[in-house]
Amino acid sequence: MPTLPKQSSSIRPSSQNSVPAPSRSTLASSPIPSRDRNAALQIASRLLGEAAHDLRSPLFAVRESASLLSDGYLGPTTDQQLSCLQGIIEQCQEMDQLVGDMLAIEQVQSGMPKMHRRWLNLAEIQSQVQRTVSHVIAQRQLTLTWDRPDGIPKVFADPGKIGRLLLNLVGNAVRVLPAGGQILIRNKFLSDQGVLQLQVIDQGPGIAPENLERFAERGESGTAGTGLGLVISRQLAALHFSPLEMTSRVGKGTCVGFQIPAAGPASVADAWLRWRARFIHAASVSTGLRIDPPELPRPWQRKSPSHLSQTAQPENHVALQHDGPPPRNPGQAAAVCVRLGGAVASEVAERLDLLLQADMQNFELGYRAAQREWILLLDATSSQAKTRLANLQDRIQRELPSARIRLSNGLQLQLAGNTARASLRDLFVRSSLNVSSELSTEISRDSLSEIPAGEDCTIPQQRLEAELRRLAIRSSRHKENLIDQAKALRLVQ
């Protein structure tokens, strides 16, 4: 049997001059440059998007064929066959959700998330989520409870994406709960910030501190499977100007929440500005793990005295921020007003709203302040904003030739300054009340049709009265809180 020749000593590398090969642990811990990481993310998201589009058609065919067999259209089936067909349909539904997550990741990573934010009632989101998860909740013998405090305000969100975010969070809770478990979706209006806080709370096994820290660093999921649910959830929360807050206690449960604007135009401006400010000094923003933060929201079930006497496990908290490329211009943005001529049909206004919001990129906002007026907050310098607006006008003329629009001169905002918040709040509130502001010095390429003077003269008064009513309700709530605090102080004394 032939043998390999022995290695000659003349070609054997010297131990003094040889360079040791890096170990696997060294390679794994080596930092990856942010530029290479962003490029890899873009390639991965593009591949995910292409694969997702290719999977949609065959997946639909398999699911519909199984449904035809299950419904008996192609002949009778036995109980065993029916059980197998139901399993196929359920797995197809799981795959369809996975494909949706892949497409959502591709949209966010491409920088064009195609948002359509608007003011809506929370009941609209609730019915969408409840209708989708009712079958799974009943099948696993779980209970889904919605907290319904009085006086829930309207929220500013994309109904499809905020519904998908809640579905992902509820789905994560469903996977870890045994039969008989309960899930609570709690909402709380934070008047000092003008936001509605939504939280999905379960009483599952909880998440260990090291796992929470890994979620923040790598965007992994806490459940078995692909791990895309948590990755896309943090991105969907970021598209609503909020981190994804996770609080967990091992053996007790997990609470995952986010915030959305819910106090009128000024709250939208504040939420967007707070979100953009995170990227000005990104190094100082903590996204890691902290032990023993503010307490986990109280469970909705009464605890027994024996449970209260036990030693409490430490709570672990992590804030999952936007995971992707930062803004092109972290410290500045351009604000532009868009107005549509009054002689144009309302159908054109709706189509223009879809076009403007779909044109917004990550870290940008298209806000419909009135029926025919929009505010665009662009991640752009003055020169970049001019190019964007020229391209936008060309696109509108191609797709909506009957639309007659006016664009204001761009207002450059220095987001790190103290005047940015006041300028944005003034712009949003004035535009929503249909009152001209300094920003609305309009320019146009065409001679535009005007609304006859006085035609909409009652609209500003109606909106002003609505804003005053909202402020009166908010003042009343503050008064009640102060009275309660005064009573508590007297009891302590």
From TrEMBL:
It comes from Roseimaritima multifibrata. Its EC number is 2.7.13.3. Pfam families: HATPase_c (PF02518), HisKA (PF00512). Residues 8-18 have a biased composition (Low complexity). GO terms for cellular component: plasma membrane. It is an enzyme of class 2 (transferase). Residues 19-32 have a biased composition (Polar residues). It catalyses: ATP + protein L-histidine = ADP + protein N-phospho-L-histidine. The keyword Iron does not apply. GO terms for molecular function: histidine phosphotransfer kinase activity; phosphorelay sensor kinase activity. Residues 50-264 form the Histidine kinase domain. InterPro entries: HATPase_C_sf, HATPase_dom, His_kinase_dom, HisK_dim/P_dom, HisK_dim/P_sf, Sig_transdc_His_kin-like_C. This is histidine kinase. SUPFAM superfamilies: ATPase domain of HSP90 chaperone/DNA topoisomerase II/histidine kinase (SSF55874), Homodimeric domain of signal transducing histidine kinase (SSF47384). The keyword Cell membrane does not apply. The lineage of its organism: Bacteria, Pseudomonadati, Planctomycetota, Planctomycetia, Pirellulales. Keywords: Kinase, Phosphoprotein, Transferase. Residues 1-34, 291-332 are annotated as: Disordered. PANTHER family: OSMOSENSING HISTIDINE PROTEIN KINASE SLN1, TWO-COMPONENT HISTIDINE PROTEIN KINASE.
